[in-house]
Amino acid sequence: QITTLINHKDKPKRSDKTLQAIQRVGQAVNLAVARFVTVGEAIADENHELKEEMDIACIEAKRAGETIAQLTDVASLYHPESDSHITIFTDKTGIVKAARLLLSSVTKVLVLADRIVIKQIITSRNKVIATMEQLEKVSTFQEFVQIFSQFGNEMVEFAHLTGDRQNDLKDEKKKARMAASRAVLEKCTMMLLTASKTCLRHPDCESARINKDGVFHQMRLALEQVIEIVTDSRSNGENELASISIYSGIRVFKNKVEGLRENLYFLSKENLSTMLEVILEHTEDFTDSAYTSHEHREHILELSKQAKMELEQLFSVWMQAQNQNTKDLMEDLEVAILKMCQCMNELKRELHSAATSLATDLLKYHTDHMVLKALKITGVEGNLEAIAEYTCKLSEQKEQLVEMCRLLRHVSGTEPLEITCIHAEDTFQVTGPQIISAAETLALHPSSKIAKENLEVFCEAWESQLSDMSTLLREINDVFEGRRGEKRVYLSLPRPGKHNTNLKALKPVKLDTEEQAKIAKLGLELHLLTCEVDSETEKWEDQENKFVQHVQGMSSMAYSMYLFTRGEGLLKTTQDLFHQAEIFAAEGTKLASAFHGFPDQLHDDGKLLLLLESEKLIPMCQQLQMTAKTSVQGKSATFTKVDACIQRTRNVMTLLCQLLPLCCRLLKKNRVGNSCLKPAPPWKENRAQTGINAQCPERTDEMLGLKSLENHVTNMTFLEQG
Hints:
Blueprint: H1 2-6, H2 16-46, H3 51-71, H4 92-137, H5 141-168, H6 172-201, H7 206-231, H8 236-240, H9 246-259, H10 269-282, H11 284-287, H12 294-323, H13 327-365, H14 370-381, H15 384-410, H16 415-444, H17 449-480, H18 513-538, H19 546-565, H20 574-597, H21 606-615, H22 617-629, H23 635-670, H24 683-689, H25 692-695, H26 697-704, H27 707-714
Helix pairs in contact: 2-3, 3-4, 4-5, 4-7, 5-6, 5-27, 6-7, 6-16, 6-17, 7-16, 9-10, 9-13, 10-12, 12-13, 13-15, 13-17, 14-15, 14-16, 14-17, 15-16, 16-17, 18-19, 18-23, 19-20, 19-23, 20-22, 20-23, 21-23, 22-23
């Protein structure tokens, strides 16, 4: 809107339509700034250490917004006597100055708000660590129940805050690191529960203590990594990341070689030679690996030797071209560049084939989880000899999978996928020994229900990581074959089949550019409806009204579906969209039930109209839920399903746009609604506890993968004697 005002072209004749449009834009900017400032002032009231800075920035923003409104007030142009009145037509520099002041002050407010969010995450982390220290020292079940309940609630809050932060991050590498850390915390919270229970039940068992200590250590590392990402402090691992991937090295090397076409002198022979040496050193990870086939090893060594020869040939022609820049020499240089790049492409292809074929074979071989099953059986039997035998087999399996992750990391193709490979490697490295200690504990106490449950949890984590590796392998292949660009794994998003068995056969896909273009118009309609719903909810005097909050939650979900149509936001695949549509439909059904009780508060003829209109909501939501759950195969059918889901979501939002003003009008007329009130929490808690989360706990928890945790926290009957 500001850009529209600044770029407006002065014309001698201005139609009434143009004048009114300019005035509307100016008023819209001023109104938006006023709302923005209101939020900023609320933030300032809750955070006294930044109140002065925030208040100054808010005052500047408000002043700039009012100036823009005054300059775009073209009503005076209709009155000759007010010719001296300054407008956008008489002083365009004024609007430019106001716009600059506005953008500057808004940026200050955003930066200050960001500092507050970071502080919230750090404070939440500190609370989690303090409670973890208490959990480590407990000696009775009663004390553990009490403290773990508190710990669970703190972890849920931390997950909400970090989930929002992950969404806000622009750097794909940081997003991937945050997703990996949050996945560790999510899994470790369940492990900590069972490991602590086992240690309390068998306090003299050394393997149980080792098992528990390992979980606490992992959680501390993950918490620290989250803070590193949030505060933008770099760890040593991140600094080394760029140097450990062969693909990254090959990409940079080829760019340098191809740069010789434009400039023969920007690079030295030594630099280029060193770059190739580093790449070939990393290929030793493949040639030295016991799991690389003889055929792949021979091909890699052969291509490495060829790369050195091609570089020597390139050097020879390059030096000649520097001394004598003739047409023939430049043609020879072009041939040398092409042969060098072709050799590197072949090496890259061979490395990819070696890593992915190993991964395919290993994942297929270990898909039956025979070693884990044997450990569970021999543990219950108390057979220590058999446990020792199978722990050796698991250790061997762990080494194979760790080596697989290292090789896949080299050929992952993108930094986010590379980080996911590192996360997988760490998970296998840590979970393997933890399974062994849990199995040893069970073998020492074969009748212990808690020890058996603990082993199950660690085995499930191993199986889950193997399943994730299959997805990761597919994505690495997709990137290599050019089917996808930068793609990051959302480890905290609901996975197909995790919450709904009907989804197991479906393959998550992304819309291509053509499909996004087709659905863009529908998405825009959905966006306009979310804006209209938000506008209607703002008219309610009671912003803590349950109906308002529930509708706001649904509007937020609809907005995320709109972002999907643009290829943006948290929903990355069609499966993510379908799962979101299911949750949206479920929330709509709940809202419809709430509407049935709503008219009982009213004493007006309008309640009949409200009841009739709200009746339409249930079949609409049922249709959406059925559409989202329907299994489809093929690209065309999937796109049709996406289109249907967006359309049905749009229909629900259209109905809400009609119901909200009717509800608001009836409530005002009858002066009721106090029963729906609840105390307003302070702003600093809003991000984690109000808005969408307050009214849609099931949706939020499933989106963050925390439903199982909260079930454990609220149902503390797990401490039965084992």
